[in-house]
User: Fold these one by one.
Assistant:
Number 1:
Amino acid sequence: MKTNPGGQLAPDEVVGRDRLIAKLWRILERQSLVLTAERRIGKTSIIKKMTAQPQFGMRVFFRDVEALRTPLEFVNCVFEDVWADLSRKQQTMKRVRIFFEQVSGGEALGVKLPQTVAPHWKTLLTKTIEDLAEQQAGLIVFCWDEMPMMLDNIKRDQSESLAMEVLDVLRSLRQMIPNLRMVFTGSIGLHHVIARLKETGYANSPINDMFVEDVAPLALIDACDLAEKLLRGEQIRVVDERVLAQAIAEAVDCFPFYIHHVVDALKWTDEPQTADLVAKIVQMSLCDDANRWDLAHFRVRINTYYSAVEQPLVLGILDELAATGTPLLLRELLERLNLQQVVSEPEAEAEAVRKLLDLLRRDHYIVQQPDSTYRFKFGLIQRYWQLRGL
């Protein structure tokens, strides 16, 4: 097995996820799924493996929707997938064809939907999925990667109401078609998008019928297995392969993406392949001006998902948790933070911090431990925060 840092992995190169995938299939038998994970944990690879190796009788579609900016663009992706699937089986889309003829003035139905049908996107989406469901006895699973980004794009470029309508029509379709399942994936953001929509009057709960599964990094045993496979595949000779593999896995919190990067760096060096060299590679990568590990994303996305009022306090919380050598209680955080410039009412300090701590937990920055203290969720990200002086 060769290193492929940041590239597309073949299904058989996705290591250590079989038990999780089996669990996800069981969940999908009963309901739709929201799959959340920190970036670089491998959620997209998991979904692509499921798409390539579906359960018997299931039809699984995958689309990265991050760049889509209108409901019609989204509907067109669904339409293209269904069109290709049914055409391959020499099946037709009766409902869509009839409706299209009614609204297009006789214009021929093609693979690309014309802009003139944009006002009818909800009806076209519904009829497209109905046409598919009529001819598919087993489960239909649509996997839409980075769904929060698409919804945020629609909200920003179109309107809040259109983003609300997308969420509502998708929920309606899940309720209406018994064998339909949806998988929304995203590193963070869906709860932020919904929260901002609620601030503008959105009252629905569009994903309360979906199961939320948080994808963790690899288990240590699986991370070591991945590192060993890569060391062998790159023909990197070491004194003790197992010891070096464990050093790699532990140094990067068992993130598959970073394991690929470290082994890839090892194959280009003439230095002795040791745990000390692994630590050196990780340290250099954390300080890398080229940002090959894309760690700057952890700082940049705060500007996207938190308001201008919240950002100073969010950064203050993370700065304090990064700087301390031990986890902190809420009262200890309050003592360390200079809140006079952030909140105008002293009695609101604890509640403001508590609210942001909850959001930072959902965004995979921090965790709350059984003793109620807070710390960074991943040591690697804490080290990056420290080194960058953020």
Number 2:
Amino acid sequence: MLDLNYVRDNLDAVRSALRDRNFPADSLGRFLELDAERRRVIGEADAINAARNAASKEIGSLMQASKQDEANAKKAEVAGLKEKQAELEAARDAAEAEMHDLLGGLPNLPADDVPVGADESANVEVRRWGSPREFDFEVKDHVDLGEALGILDFERATKIAGSRFAIMNGAGSRLSRALVNFMLDIHTGEHGYVETTPPFLVNRAALFGTNQLPKFEEDLFHIKDDRGFALIPTAEVPVTNYHAGEMLDASDLPKYFAAYTPCFRSEAGSYGRDTRGLIRQHQFEKVELVKLCLPENSEEEHEKLTANAERILQLLGLPYRTVVLSTGDMGFGARKTYDIEVWLPSQQTYREISSCSNCGDFQARRMNTRFKRSGGAKPEFVHTLNGSGLAVGRTWIAVIENCQQADGSVVIPKVLRPYMNGIESIRPD
């Protein structure tokens, strides 16, 4: 959530940033009306409070002078002022609540070095690693490979659950589990993250804290009961909310978390996109990386988090590129995002496998996660960061496609073989 005082004091800059994010800046017109109303009622309430205090002192003097009738008249006047003050305070609370709701619907403001653009065409490539393999045979996609190898079954998944679901079997399932364990081992052993296993159901407060609500209500799978639960769309939600409402000590930061979870998304608005294969599923798996850090360190921590995610692809030997997203392509809560895109031979292009975002204090304000420095300093909001390290299904796709052989088999990357009980390749029966 944006800082109310910053929005008020930098209205033109905020409007400009919202336009860069393809967001209607005219929504701030109502903000100004509410802010003016809030200031008015606070001023009136302060004046009435002063009048009440003065009248109360006068009542005491009248009582001492045995002027009972005048004192009673003053008491009636004070009672009227108290009632009026309560009305003004209710009006203030209503204005502040609407301002809170309005700010809750505004996206984060982009960092100064984010490229300005309307959509993904304005994204800027910052680096590449590895070279796409040159094949001397006709390349197959992961669907054809997986079905021929007997490790991927869409037909029965559709029978059981519907479209955008898949079943992995045998070595395919083992490969998925190997990727999860490999990612977690690298991130906890090499990169210093603490492994955590969070709830897969969350409440509305947690969803608001990481900005899934109110904007992405339709993208969630809601549980139909009176508790307001939803299945997590990403482990970012429960893990980032771990310290919601808490006051941390500056010496405890940064905090690094790595979590493997299933994720559930309705993919509202994406109908017709990536309908073939595992690219866009209702249920998928990720190893998520989350950081909480001091504000002055968040840019450096963002670079490190992105490098941590890239390291997985390097160890697997999968070519990729990293791009910084433009203002029009960033996620709602991000102030800067790097997308890591892995090479898919069947599509002859790079596809997103991780988004690594610095959210600044945007989520911390929504969650009320703060910290205090030593020496009696006033509380500040932490900065939060998150990224996939990596999306398991898309990594599975990249391994299957990049490591395919002419006979339809798939060579297992050497770093995964210890997790595959020594299996060196997946071969047709």
Number 3:
Amino acid sequence: MTVELLNTHPNAPTLGRVILVGAGPGDPDLLTIKALRVIESSDFILYDRLVSKEIIALFPTKTPTMYVGKQKSNHSVPQDELNDLLVAKARQGLTVCRLKGGDSLIFGRGGEEILKLKSAGIEVELVPGITAASGCASYAGIPLTHRGISQGCTMVTAHGEKELNLNWEHLAKIDHTLVFYMGLSKSQLISTQLQIHGMSPTTPVALIENGCCPSQRVIRGQLHELPLLAEREIVQSPALIIVGDVVNLADQLAWFSNNEFSNAGLLPKSRHQIQKLSA
């Protein structure tokens, strides 16, 4: 009874909440309807570097926003400070949209943020997003699994919290499609270690730069030349690396061109249409 009285005291501050939203891999048409509703209705938006400019253009003009993106060795807001910021904004009574590229719980540090928020007594909600492995592979015409070629897919981050500690022998022999996130700067390591542990140097690879965006590029080759491809083609982050025989299907399954973004699609073009869709 005492606890109930404390929680319902008329002068007690009203806590807000934080909604972690996966923005998908770039194409705004890949936002879920729920994600769009949260973007439209939140009091404050904190967004990452991998949220595309096309999605940023959908932010309501009157909603305060803050960029909290991370690049290699350059974090605009350190993770610990970001966790504290989320708590502080929720304690102001705000509904906070924490917008992340891809999916919040796949190499997005979403779990760390949720743990911090829950320990502070803040209500949390999750809106899943299409992760880069699925979205970028689809737009490149590369199936992550294909009967008779690959019966599984393994997603790997090329960056650890302190050091990269991967079981390269397992990865080389698992006979899955391998998808490396944040692997561009580690392309030499990936190529060398997989070959050392038994993967054929001629295994097909693909680098997908700016996947699901108007500037998407797909560079294909073989495992032994992976670092050369990245250097020769001046591949820029964000880029995804796919390793496996499924890459050979890209020509047969190709469907996407950069012109897709200039064609009429599902993306609402006016604020009225956006509000109608998210209602």
